[in-house]
Amino acid sequence: MTLSLTELAACFEGVIPSILCTVGADGTPNISYLSHVTRLDDEHVGLSDQFFSKTARNIRENPRAALLVVNPHDGAQYRLDLQYCETVGSGPVFERMAADLRATSAQVGMTDVMRLRGVAIHRVLGLRAVRSPLAAAPPEAWRGSALPRMAAVVDAFADRTELGEIVDAALDALEAAFRHGATMILLHDPARDCFVTLGSRGYGRTGIGADVLPGEGLIGLSGKEGRAIRVSDASRLRRFGAAVEASSEQENRTRSVALPSLPGAMSQIALPMATQGRIRGVLFLESPKRLAFSAEDEAALALIARQLAAAIALSEADAAEAAPDAPIPRRPSEVASPHIRVVHHAHDDSVFIEHDYLIKGVPGRILIHMLEAFLSAGQVDFSNREIRTDRALRLPGLKDNLETRLLLLRRRLEDKNAPIRLLRLSRGRIRLHVAGYPIVISDRKSGAQ
């Protein structure tokens, strides 16, 4: 039976290093291990040009080489006879492999150290299976086409109009359709230029409010570069944020929320949620199984991420236009007990409720604005339009992502089981619910720390 490189796609996932054999002019062989080998088409492969000097010298002297690749599903081995063609330092092939190397580097914290020098392109002259004394492991059962699973996920959130419902429906549907392990949806916060967790499934805690900087780990790199990044075997990599202990003490100290982690994650995939030329966020999935996400899964999830971005953008636009022109009803406040201590630090708009860190940035500023309106005028009902046009809030421009910020604030209050909650009344309208009387201490006014 004639084999093709297409049939060996799993061998190029980077799970098991490939072995390259070259021969010098004097006939002395040399062996090198390669972590990055890419199938370019049915006749060519690309090898990362990070060779030791002996390998590079051998290729210059003798352009023929042999490459051993391994199928991580069943352990089957294949030999490729190669003819060196050229080394490229730019262009689509180089950028593709450089991006893969950056993804690996981001996982081990060496983004600025591990850089691709070039891609050595080789023509495949021959391909054959290598006989093994041991029988190959039986392949895993095929899960079926990813297309029906993709359709099921998109159908789940396509008719939703409220941002929170869209996020929850997508997370639940992804969990049911792909059965991978854990999922996060992070949206971009333009004011702080980071990706903030709005929802998750499959973790021990929600991680609502955890943020990732552009270029940081798989999530940040996917968001920064606007491309899908897939890791099929993370056993040799350090998962970003895994060493950070999640606790109230840690949150209070750092004024930040630790990113949730799936113990023993082996496969990870991050996909940009892009629409109309703008990165709205990142969809992130991981699994305790190696090779959990195939190339077909990646294509399906990429489309889901795009549809999710479009649904979120439409939800933001609808909420912005939904507030009625009539005045919002205002209810008198009732002084109640117990008192709720709320501390606001103006330099980063971080908010602490009863000494526990809640949130920072624009959502923190919005909460303090609502509490002050409640204390001064007894206001409990607010509209998106009212919040958006209030100059005192200093919202960042037209694309203020207000609906996203309100959802993040609402979910952080729920996640912390705070005595203050935001209730959604209808599209573009929310209600402040306070189980007590808030005592707001802000260094913006009083100089309190």
TrEMBL record:
Keyword Repeat set for record: no
Keywords assigned by UniProt?
A: Kinase, Transferase
Q: Lineage of this protein's species?
A: Bacteria, Pseudomonadati, Pseudomonadota, Alphaproteobacteria, Acetobacterales
Pfam families listed in its UniProt record: GAF_2 (PF13185), PNPOx_N (PF01243)
Q: Name one GO molecular function term.
A: kinase activity
Q: Which residues form the GAF domain?
A: 162-322
Q: What is this protein called?
A: Histidine kinase
Q: Which residues cross the membrane?
A: none
